[in-house]
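Sample 3 of the quickstart, ligand flavin mononucleotide:
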Amino acid sequence: MLTNKTIVLGITGGIAAYKAADIASKLTQAGARVEVIMTESATKFIIPLTLRNITGRAVVTDMFELASEFSVEHVALADAADVVAIAPATANTIASLAAGIADDMLGCIVLATRAPIVVAPSMDVNMFENPITQENLSKLKARGFTIVDPAYGRMASGKVGLGRLAETETIIGTIKQMLGRNGDLAGKRITVTAGGTQEPIDPVRHIGNRSSGKMGYAVAEAARDRGAAVSLITTPTCLPEPVGVEVIHVQTVSEMREAVIKATARADALIMAAAVADYKPKSVAKAKIKKDSPSLTLELVRTPDILAEVKGNFIKVGFAAESEDTIDNARRKLQEKQLDLIVANDITSPDSGFGVDTNKVTLIDRDGKVESLPLLTKREVADKILDRVVEFLAKKPPLQRIEFSLWPPSSTERYKRINIPEDVRHLFPEDKVPFLIETDIGTFSVCVKRHENTPSHIHLRRTNWFKAHPELKAGDKVAIEVIEPMKKYRLKVGI
Ligand SMILES: Cc1cc2nc3c(=O)[nH]c(=O)nc-3n(C[C@H](O)[C@H](O)[C@H](O)COP(=O)(O)O)c2cc1C
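Result:
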């Protein structure tokens, strides 16, 4: 995704300036054209020659020197940039950017560019926590700059606190997120599950599986890089949390089920890459099971089939990790679980499936189209899956969707209600005729009510839905989508 992208990397005079070499190197290796601008102070910490060799490009250190093609026209780089990233950013540079000062090349470029600007502060904890620095950072945030918060840890001064430059992966992840913000999934919400569920046997043991989570994490990152708002529901893994993704941690199938139901209430697509246990111990021992007896029998019971159970107006993608009859088994799952797409992989192959960075999969869709892909990296597989999701989303007929404001509670009413204006009343069943409404905490049977002197309204009083959303205030907007007229609707918050 970084190929043909121009990243202007601003390096300023902080102790972490040497880490910019790693950032420049990883961006260059990923295919980006990295144009480095160093402040004069930065050149005291790391020499421009290092960056020149890493990026293969001239490094701009002086606005008035004509060594670089970009020095001739001092704002040319501003136009060329897809993203401007400043890492590390000193307190001094942050202050000067907040004040709009343009007395060096970096200041000019920041003022002149229309590209997103990423700032990764790095400084002594007291400098960082100083209200002046905080105020300057708030100013930049308010102006649309993206701040990559520094990490907590030991500083060069020996102090411990907030101020260390964020990890290279975090900074690059943020740059990718900025690059993808107008991608083909912009404005879409994608829920991804990853990892292998863990079903406890006793307080120290569980039944797990060999899923590393790599495939799901790759899908989450790829969706983020294409502009989607991603919720990643993950079991414990050894992988770093992707930047710019909402990460929801779960362990068991039932926790994952709950999280999926909640997330899909507003999702456009669900991609279930997690390896979900089919069985769990019937009971969990309260204390650690001792090795007293020569054998031990665990009684297992079926877990819920999340993918088959969750339904709604979203694209549903499943994975079929199979060790035999891969395609036939995958086809059967596609039908049984009413999926739009299934990703079948033969886990017996050593370079495909669990743990490794590559995967060889076959995509089978609801129209019967079968596409066998060659051995690819998991990131490449993720993008192939998302290509198909984009196609399906384009075909999806838009749902009839009505926006409502929550009605203020009266002195006698404990819960807010949703008033139905007369012009959309016909989209709902008659008064007191029950219908289903899907929400992020479950599906409820409700009906439209009307009392004397009140407009028609939906009361979710008995469902505890409002209790689950204490953040909602009267006047907040919610939307109701018609899934099946007169029978089934979906309530969406956070619109
Ligand atoms: C050894 C040394 C280390 C420094 N480290 C930092 C630092 O990590 N962060 C910071 O904000 N300033 C640091 N400074 C102060 C900056 O170098 C100084 O404010 C300089 O004017 C920054 O210039 P620039 O923002 O144009 O790069 C350091 C100074 C010295 C002498």
